[in-house]
Amino acid sequence: MKTLTRGYIDGKSLPERQSGASLIEVLISMVLISIGLLGISASQISSLKLTHSAYQRSQATLLADDIADRMRANINEASKTATTYLTASAQGVNHGTNCVNYTGPLTNSCSTANMAEQDLYDWQQSLVQVLNGQGILCRDNNPNNGTSIAAHGCDNALTSPFVIKIWWNDDRDPSTPDQLFATSFEL
User: Fold this and answer.
1) Which residue among 58, 106, 124, 186 sits deepest, i.e. has the most Cβ atoms within 10 Å of its Cβ?
2) What is the distance between the alpha carbons of residues 79 and 20, in angstroms, rounded to a whole number?
3) Strands 8-9 and 134-139, sheet pairing
4) Within 10 A of 181 (CB to CB), how many other CB atoms are there?
């Protein structure tokens, strides 16, 4: 039979009987806290990725609205059957006539076609700078088809609405497919 006297069991003090027990409890607590912190870190990383993805989608929306507004501002060119907005977008745009001068008056006159080329050039530069992406203007009845500029999937029928398609890599990983933002609009 064990006898208990002040702080002693069977002649041994309580601290002697508990040697190492508190150390094991501390180690188990540390392991549990570490697992919890790893879970919190994983949640934070996932949250940051999703926030960045939402930011990029918002930028794609703003850039699509930008080129649509530019077309509406240049309605005389945009309403043509063979508008420069569609033909130049499909071929790629080189910066030709400078139709914008932020430091003073323009010294040359720009036609509506020149302005369309300027608009497309500025828009495509913005796509590269903001999203590291690319986009196309076309006519299409099914805006969500197409996997890239080369395979844009536009039907270009005159009865189809105008469509803006923008592609960018959301993961910054070349092995993952590009994201597509597409919107259709009327002038």
Assistant:
1) 124
2) 84
3) unpaired
4) 22
Q: Is residue 46 part of a domain?
A: no
For 103-120, b/e burial (b = at least 16 CB within 10 A) is: eeeeeeebebbbbbbbbb
| Range(s) of the domain holding residue 102 | 58-185
For the chain, what is the domain count?
A: 1
Cα–Cα distance, 147 to 84 (Å, whole number): 23
How big is the CA angle at 149 (ends 146 and 151), to the nearest 5 degrees? 45
Per-residue pLDDT of the chain (187 residues), as tens digits, is: 555 556 555 556 655 555 666 788 889 999 999 999 999 999 999 999 889 889 999 999 999 999 999 999 999 988 888 888 887 666 666 666 677 766 666 656 788 888 888 888 889 989 999 998 889 898 888 888 887 777 788 888 888 899 999 999 887 677 777 888 999 988 8
CB 152 within 8 A of CB 138: yes
CA angle 146, 87, 85 (to 5 degrees): 95
Query: What secondary structure letter does DSSP report for 172?
Result: S
